[in-house]
Specification:
The structure is a single chain. This protein is α+β, with helices and mostly antiparallel strands. About 25% of the residues lie in helices and about 30% in strands. The chain is globular and about 80 Å long. It starts with a helix and ends with a strand. The strands form 7 sheets. An 8-stranded antiparallel beta sheet has the order 27-24-26-25-29-30-28-31. A 7-stranded mixed beta sheet has the order 2-3-1-4-5-11-6, with helices on both faces. Strands 18-17-23-14-15-22 form a 6-stranded antiparallel beta sheet. Helix 12 packs across helix 13. The structure holds guanosine-5',3'-tetraphosphate.
Length: about 525
């Protein structure tokens, strides 16, 4: 029992949220470098080689040279076992990116210091905020010209609606980057051109009270400026409150350069110290204690055909309580089936490692016999609860789907329905039209290509996709009457999802407000439970 507690307390399960190019991959690589998982920087990434090596599962990935799927990396650092969930972020941004956040206990937000908050960060932040998970901010690329530090903090507060608390403070940026000031220890970590990029990164630690040493290390002008700024932030910045951090209301902010290995180790150390171990999770029978000896988990992602030779489907689950052993029987609650999980494994890049045991907080992949779905619960045979489902996130792109050969109707419907059940795409139909008119909705446009590719390769069905102009979707949450009676706008369409829930899609966001104004008692929601 006690070893379970000890193991679970060490777990830190988190995801990195960022806009493409902010430095997520570089930071991940540095985490692995400092944890000793890899020996030299550059072995995870380098656009030509490593990004592909991280995940090369699907044929389409090879063709396009990007990663469509995602994985979880585990590493140890400072006595913690970190589980880093990879959130697909470039062209491969999809609903999976959002779902992965459902499995994380905290998030690291990487922001490019020269750009501030960018659109993809905002979208991902919204999902984290919905779950009230703690968010730790790393302002990256300080070795390049950055925005004014006060402006960056202001941007985060205004744009994302979260209070900020700088844990350290940058001294200049770009050519004038001299280091960071550690507000806790009140010393300056100096950045040097000669050490940049080496594993040590930091040249010296100089107490801010030793003014002359500081001045000779970073120059009198930078020292003056720093003193002024320190006085300002000590007076104006939010005071640090760990409870607010844990509730996701206050984000601790760190500065550095992932590429130059500067500020990363300090960030890692502090962030893993503050980040929560697995906490109780909501089920339909109340909160489930992660430290209970009984195993439980939920599926947050299903990945088909990761390896052409296997042609299998892998269900990724997040363990929520207890300890998993590969020889134990567990219950798949939705089917009632009790069995051993098939080939439990930890998946890093395209490398699969068989798991003998795992603990709450850990992520594992198992072979899906074709009956698992996103959101499903696994627990001990005696238990009967289910974890809260994963919300369906609003697609942002829509297309009408037609098959080329109308004789293959059945195959087409089967294929598209199966792919939708996996959660790769969402399908809708115009209200009252059955399956004749299928509208497909996706979070990232690449999913359209994935759909076309998979229907052709797995179901031998060719399709034509006609992209539609709708970009905003709302589920009808409350409406007394027939959906057809909702007074719409010219750019609105009424559709329903596979479960028969009615929805409205719009070309313009302002139409959403207009429709709400025109229909008293109508309530719309951005995602469905
Ligand atoms: P992403 O995963 O968030 O998309 O970002 P990624 O780490 O791939 O970084 C995007 C680009 O920014 C890369 O350059 C990377 O080297 C650079 N970068 C990341 N962190 C820093 C930093 O702290 N300072 C500076 N100056 N650059 C940084 P690239 O030229 O696009 O790729 P590569 O050819 O270097 O691999």
């Amino acid at each position: 029992m006690s070893d379970i507690r000890e193991e679970i307390e060490k777990r830190r399960t988190f995801a990195i949220i960022s806009h493409p190019d902010a430095g997520k991959t570089t930071l991940t690589e540095k985490f692995l470098l400092y944890s000793g998982t890899i020996n030299t920087a550059g072995s995870v990434k380098g656009k030509a080689t490593a990004k592909h090596a991280v995940s090369d599962w699907m044929e389409i990935e090879k063709q396009r040279g990007i990663s469509v799927t995602s994985s979880a990396l585990q590493f140890e650092y400072d006595g913690c076992v970190a589980n880093l969930l990879d959130t697909p972020g470039h062209q491969d941004f999809s609903e999976d990116t959002y779902r992965t956040l459902m499995a994380a206990d905290s998030a690291v937000m990487v922001i490019d210091g020269g750009k501030g908050v960018e659109p993809q960060t905002r979208k991902l932040f919204k999902v984290c905020a919905m779950r009230h998970i703690p968010i730790f901010t790393f302002i990256n690329k300080m070795d390049r010209d950055a925005l004014d530090t006060f402006d960056i903090l202001d941007d985060i507060e205004k744009n994302l609606g979260v209070a900020t608390c700088p844990v350290n403070w940058p001294i200049g940026s770009g050519k004038n980057f001299r280091g960071i000031y550690d507000r806790q220890l009140k010393d300056v970590l100096t950045y040097s051109e000669t050490l940049k990029g080496t594993k040590e990164g930091v040249e010296n630690r100089i107490p801010v009270s030793d003014r002359s040493a500081l001045s000779s290390a970073i120059g009198e002008e930078a020292t003056e400026k720093l003193m002024g700024e320190v006085e300002l932030i000590d007076g104006a910045a939010e005071s640090f409150d760990l409870e607010e951090v844990k509730a996701g209301m206050l984000t601790p902010v760190f500065f550095g350069s992932a590429l130059q290995n500067f500020g990363v180790e300090i960030f890692m150390h502090e962030f893993l110290k503050m980040a929560p171990a697995p906490e109780a999770r909501k089920s339909d029978m109340g909160l489930i204690d992660p430290y209970s000896s009984d195993f439980s988990a939920f599926v947050f992602k299903i990945q088909a055909n990761m390896n052409k030779a296997h042609r299998d489907r892998i269900a990724f689950m997040r363990i929520c309580s207890g300890k998993f052993r590969s020889d134990m029987n567990v219950k798949h609650v939705q089917s009632g089936r009790v069995a051993r999980l098939s080939q439990p494994q930890q998946i890093m890049a395209d490398d699969r490692k068989t798991l003998d045991e795992a603990y709450a907080g850990d992520i594992m992949g198992v072979i899906d016999p074709g009956i698992y779905a996103i959101g499903d619960t696994f627990c001990m045979p005696k238990d009967k609860y289910q974890y809260e489902g994963i919300p369906t996130f609003a697609p942002e792109h829509f297309a009408r789907v037609r098959q080329v050969d109308t004789m293959k109707r059945e195959k087409f419907v089967k294929g598209i329905t199966q792919i939708a059940q996996e959660g790769a795409i969402q399908i809708f139909r115009e209200i009252g039209t059955g399956m004749e008119e299928i509208i497909c909705g996706v979070v990232g446009v690449l999913q359209f290509d994935v759909l076309k590719f998979r229907l052709e390769n797995e179901y031998n069905v060719e399709i034509i996709l006609e992209q539609l102009p709708y970009e905003h979707i709302r589920w009808v949450k409350e409406w007394n009457g027939d959906v057809k009676e909702i007074v719409g706008t010219s750019d609105m369409k009424r559709i329903e999802d596979l479960k028969g829930n009615p929805l409205l899609i719009f070309v313009n966001e302002w139409s959403v407000g207009m429709v709400l104004d025109r229909n008293k008692g109508l309530e719309l929601a951005e995602f469905s439970r």
